[in-house]
């Protein structure tokens, strides 16, 4: 599956500002097709994946992974997106079919679907314990929550915008977003000027409606601050599951769990939450896992 999605990594104001800007239409649509998500879930998952992709590109190591996990008391319950440093992401949610009335402004009520809860940001370099940062959800609208994570957990003054635009058939018309961050040595006056500019951004979805590309979005947001693009990266939805990984996951469930599967005396099907791929284990194969 080829994807037209991409991301720009940029700086502005002579390096005092750094920015990530992306479009993720194909990624969001791939997710929607895989999980048959309702419009609200499509929007929530698309926003979360855009954020994960932009944060993933900032990872240092080749094998590093970043996971954004949202657990709320709303009907969506939980959603998760994991991105690597190469521009791929996979995502899953507990309740892909949630439907709620639109908000007064006509937008999808993502905050209502997610509810109150916790955003966890898990950085895993594959060696030892992952690093986990957590913040309370501010609104459940995802962008504000990721923004709160940056300001509270990482103490980086940031502005995060995320949006997903659906068409009449409830497929994804456009998706994307931005993360703009001020570096510690940035001048006070720059902060004011940037805040002034970002106040004019009311809805990323409305910007996407105008057909912005990452380049034009960057120009729109930071055109007054002499932006410089340092990297362009293609983005796509990709699940790296394999039979080997599923076997490991089964083993990690423990002896009792595997024994209870065997006691069914029939082949067991394990489905990947991220891509729906099915892995079948016969009774004999499960017995072999037990020995390992
Ligand atoms: Zn998979």
Automatic annotation (TrEMBL):
Keywords: Chaperone, Cytoplasm, Disulfide bond, Redox-active center, Zinc. It comes from the Bacteria. This is 33 kDa chaperonin. Under oxidizing conditions two disulfide bonds are formed involving the reactive cysteines. Under reducing conditions zinc is bound to the reactive cysteines and the protein is inactive. GO terms for molecular function: protein folding chaperone; unfolded protein binding. One of its GO terms (biological process) is protein refolding. Belongs to the HSP33 family. The keyword Cytoplasm applies. Disulfide bonds join 239-241, 272-275. It comes from Oribacterium parvum ACB1. Redox regulated molecular chaperone. Protects both thermally unfolding and oxidatively damaged proteins from irreversible aggregation. Plays an important role in the bacterial defense system toward oxidative stress. GO terms for cellular component: cytoplasm. It is found in: Cytoplasm. It holds the Pfam family HSP33. InterPro entries: Heat_shock_Hsp33 (IPR000397), Heat_shock_Hsp33_C (IPR016154), Heat_shock_Hsp33_N (IPR016153).
């Amino acid at each position: 599956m080829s994807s037209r999605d991409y991301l720009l990594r940029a700086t502005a104001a002579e390096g005092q500002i750094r920015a990530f800007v992306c479009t993720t239409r194909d990624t969001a649509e791939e997710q929607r097709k895989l999980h048959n998500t309702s419009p609200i879930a499509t929007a929530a998952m698309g926003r979360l994946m855009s954020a994960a992709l932009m944060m993933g590109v900032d990872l240092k190591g080749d094998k590093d992974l970043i996971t954004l996990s949202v657990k709320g008391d709303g009907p969506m319950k939980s959603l998760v997106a994991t991105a690597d440093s190469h521009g791929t992401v996979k995502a899953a949610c507990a309740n892909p079919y949630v439907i709620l009335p639109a908000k007064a402004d006509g937008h999808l009520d993502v905050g209502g679907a997610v509810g109150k809860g916790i955003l966890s940001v898990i950085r895993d370099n594959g060696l030892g314990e992952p690093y986990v940062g957590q913040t309370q959800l501010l609104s459940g609208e995802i962008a504000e929550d990721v923004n709160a994570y940056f300001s509270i957990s990482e103490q980086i003054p940031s502005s995060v915008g995320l949006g997903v635009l659906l068409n009449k058939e409830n497929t994804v018309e456009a998706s994307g977003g931005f993360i703009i961050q001020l570096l510690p040595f940035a001048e006070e006056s720059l902060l004011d000027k940037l805040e002034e500019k970002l106040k004019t951004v009311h809805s990323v979805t409305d910007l996407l409606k105008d057909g912005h590309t990452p380049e034009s979005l960057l120009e729109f947001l930071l055109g007054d601050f002499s932006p410089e693009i340092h990297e362009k990266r293609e983005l796509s939805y990709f699940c790296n599951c394999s039979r080997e990984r599923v076997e490991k996951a089964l083993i990690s469930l423990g002896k009792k769990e595997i024994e209870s599967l065997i006691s069914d005396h029939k082949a067991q099907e394990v489905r990947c939450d991220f891509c729906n791929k099915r892995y079948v284990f016969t009774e004999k194969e499960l017995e072999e896992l037990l020995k390992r």
